[in-house]
Each structure stands twice: as C-alpha cells, then as structure tokens.
Known about the structure:
Layout: H1 3-22, H2 34-66, H3 72-92, H4 112-141, H5 148-175, H6 180-207, H7 212-235, H8 241-262
Amino acid sequence: MSDTLKILxxxxxxxxxxxxxxxxxxxxxxxxxxxxxKILLGFASGVMIAASVWSLIIxxxxxTEERGGIAWVPSAAGFLLGIGFLLFLDSVIPHLHMNSxxxxxxxxxxxxxxxxxxxxxxxxxxxxxxVGVVFAGVKATGGDxxxxxxxxxxxxxxxxxxxxxxxxxxxxxxxxxxxxxxxFSYGVLSGIVEPIGSIITILxxxxxVPVLPYILSFAxxxxxxxxxxxxxxxxxxxxxxNIGTIGVALxxxxxxxxxxxxx
Length: 263
C-alpha cells in the first residue's frame, strides 16, 4: 500500500466516525437523554485534550529540539495562534450551541437546525487540521518524530469521539422537525470539513516544512479552544455534572493509551 493511500485512509477515518454517529437517528427514538449527552461530551473533551498533548504539542517540542531550536517557542506561539484563530471564527460564523437559544457569531437569518450544524462544523475544523498536520509530520520526518502508527492513533481517537458528536448533532435536528434522512445528511456534511481541512493542512505543511512544529501546536490550541469554550461547559450544565467529568477521564485515558501503545 502506497504512503499516499495510507494518508488518504487516515484522513477519511474521522468522517466515518461522524457518519456512524449521525446514523443514530435511524436507530434511536426521540431526543438523547441529557445524562448520555453529558458523558459523550465529556468523552469527546478527554480525547481532544489528550490528543492535543500527546499527538501535537509533545511532537512539536521534540521536533524543535531535534533541529536545535528553543523547544517551547513554536509550541507556545502556535498554541496561542490556534486559540486566537478559533476565537475569530467563533465571533464571525453564526452558530448555536446545544441547549442554548441565543445564537453566537454574526447575526443571521439561518434556522436553528442549520446553526446547530454550523456549531459542530466549526469545531470539526481543528480536528481536521490536527489529523492533517500529524500525517504531514510523518511524511516530512520519515516517521522519525511522528510515526505512522501514532498518526493513525490520532485519526482513530478523533473518529471515536466523532461518533457521539454525530449523534448529538443529528438527533436534535430531528427534534426540530427535520426528516431523519436529512438529519443524517446534515451530520455527515458537518464532518466533511475534517478530511478537507486535513488535506489542505497536509499540502501547506509539505510546502513549508520548517513551520511544522508551529502548525502542530496551532491545531492543539484550536482543539483546546473548542474543549474549553463548548464541550466542557455543555457537559457540566444542570444536574449530574460529575457524569461529564467521568466522560473526560475515560476519553483522556483511551486517547493516551492509543497514542502511547501505537506510537
């Protein structure tokens, strides 16, 4: 199997996770119970936190050290730029967080369902970047700093947390009166931004190899922004907030094991 084909498979895996989750609209009746939403949101948070550390920031630090640079500079700069980038997108793209009635971003006449989908699409962008830049790192370093197994570990981890995300976005859309088939399509479409973002990031990283540590950290910052701004607050709303915390612990542990065992 060629390296190009392996990379293509790697960037598509997260979309498969989103599609599988979106298919829950055909299997489950009614809205998802809040307690299940909390543990799934917490799980997604844990996966993204662990992925940011083990799959992105640590490789960025190691890569910089190997090149004789100041280890913390690209990681710190890239991380803060990633936070700033998502903060900017959050302020301009109209979207609606789950369990909220007040839209964020620019004023828009879009319906509630579409703004819910845009909210998920917004935080799928850094996930796609993360997968893309890790596979770019494999290609650029020949597997020395980032192994192919480690890249696939990240891709699988993102796919696992995309399964509940796909369900969480598609089921409320059905509750708003949209057909199950359309809700499934919307869920899949929200995930398409991931492979697109991955491929764009791979192309950019391949052209500008010296900035790879910055891009790795940039993706980490963008993912952490999503976790802190959206996922954790939503998992802690109302009663049984400890369920969301348990989900964080499970997601973090699973992603850590995947990265260390496969990396």
